[in-house]
Amino acid sequence: MPRPAMRAPNPDWTDPGCPVARSLDLVGDRWSLLVIRDAMDGARSFTEFQRRTGIARNILTDRLRKLTAHGLLAQRTAPSGRRREYVLTDAGRDLFPVILTLRQWGERHAYAPGEPHSTLVDQQGVPVPEFAPAGADGTPLGADTTHVRKT
Fold first, then answer.
1. What per-residue confidence (pLDDT) applies to 2?
2. By its UniProt entry, which InterPro entries does this protein fall under (predicted)?
3. Residue 70 falls within a domain, yes or no?
4. Which DSSP category does 65 fall into?
5. How far apart are CA 122 and CA 18, in angstroms?
């Protein structure tokens, strides 16, 4: 099934030819990624997002509007039928490896050895293994083994 197109090209892209820069233009502030993180963890309502993040109402309103406009979140009627809720779209769910990589980087570099922190676990309660990108032949990939090919 084809993916829905994001918005038309923005004349204000930071670097129009770079997918990293465009991604950061869409979700590169901390609040946007924390909203996506919490949506992945089951948050659905404005109140839940605000409670979990501590974000100011005006900033949360702006981020939810932006993430919805760019197709990362969608609004739907809550099962109760009384409120609207936010749910991840396919594009929003596609950010899972990004959130996972940031989490694992943070576990390695943002905590002192032995300092407690939350742990991401699978449905059986087992910690998620280290995420490591690999090439088509299974060889580990890194900054020293890849390069950008400009088009």
1. 45
2. ArsR-like_HTH, HTH_HxlR, WH-like_DNA-bd_sf, WH_DNA-bd_sf
3. yes
4. H
5. 33
Residue length, the chain? 151
Q: Which two tokens stand for residue 48?
A: 């839940």
What secondary structure, in 3-state letters, does 123-138 show? CCCCECCCCCCECCCC
Give this prediction's pTM: 0.85
CATH number of domain containing 49: 1.10.10.10
Alpha-carbon torsion, ordered 145, 102, 126, 136, to 10 deg: -20
The answer for residues whose C-beta is within 8 angstroms of residue 22's C-beta and 6 or more apart is: 13, 14, 15, 16
In the chain, at which residue ranges do the beta strands (DSSP E only) sit? 73-77, 84-88
Sign of CA dihedral 37, 43, 45, 48: negative
DSSP-assigned letter for residue 144 = T
Tell me the pLDDT of the chain averaged across its residues: 91
In terms of pLDDT, which residue wins out, 53 or 3?
53
Q: Domain count of the chain? A: 1
Please say whether the dihedral angle defined by the alpha carbons of residues 126, 131, 136 and 137, taken in this order, is positive or negative.
Answer: negative
The domain of 26 spans 19-89
Asked whether 96 and 80 are in contact (CB, 8 A), the reply is: no
